[in-house]
Design a protein that fits this description.
Its EC number is 3.6.1.23. It contains 1 helix and 11 strands; from the N terminus they run E-E-E-E-E-E-H-E-E-E-E-E. The structure holds deoxyuridine-5'-triphosphate and magnesium ion.
Length: 147
């Protein structure tokens, strides 16, 4: 079990912290901490504040992913999906939304705009070599095995 710490930013006392909407939901929904409703016209992108900063164990990352309902109904998605929250980031978590739909979409204060999924990050070191270990696939890719 991991513990993730959240710190609300001033003025966001009534904005819910990330919340799971069902017992086994993978994603914690993120709420918009916009001061007033924010409109996204078709094709427009905006960085939406969540009103909190966080700290998680060093072997975790958090991914910011779209909500499928907003994507399906309104064309609202995360431009940089999945967004990456690094374990050492202490700034406000923000969500980069884009409107790929055909109508203007308005984000209300407190609305659930995206979801955050936690993942473990393996410990990696980088090694440089002249030759890589051989494989049967070799350099074949991009449809090399057929459809
Ligand atoms: O959707 C996102 C993506 C990133 N971040 C924050 C947390 C993350 O740790 C930091 C940096 O993100 P990223 O590495 O994706 O951006 P970068 O363009 O490489 O910026 P940097 O040079 O700060 O790493 O920005 C968010 O709040 N929301
Ligand atoms: Mg980066």
């Amino acid at each position: 079990m991991y513990q993730v710490l959240f710190k609300r930013l001033p003025g966001n006392e009534e904005i819910q912290l990330p919340v799971r909407m069902s017992e086994l939901a993978a994603g914690f929904d993120l709420h918009a901490a916009v001061a007033e409703p924010v409109s996204l016209s078709p094709g427009e992108r905006k960085l939406i504040p969540t009103g909190f900063c966080m700290a998680m164990p060093s072997d975790l990352e958090a991914q910011i992913r779209p909500r499928s309902g907003l994507a399906y109904k309104h064309g609202i998605t995360c431009l940089n999906s999945p967004g990456t929250i690094d374990a050492d980031y202490r700034g406000e978590v923000k969500v980069l939304l884009i409107n790929l739909g055909q109508e203007t979409f308005t984000i209300e204060r407190g609305e659930r705009i995206a979801q955050m999924v936690f993942q473990t990050v393996p410990s990696i070191t980088i090694g440089e070599v002249d030759e890589l270990p051989e494989t049967i696939r070799g350099a074949g890719g991009f449809g090399h095995t057929g459809v």
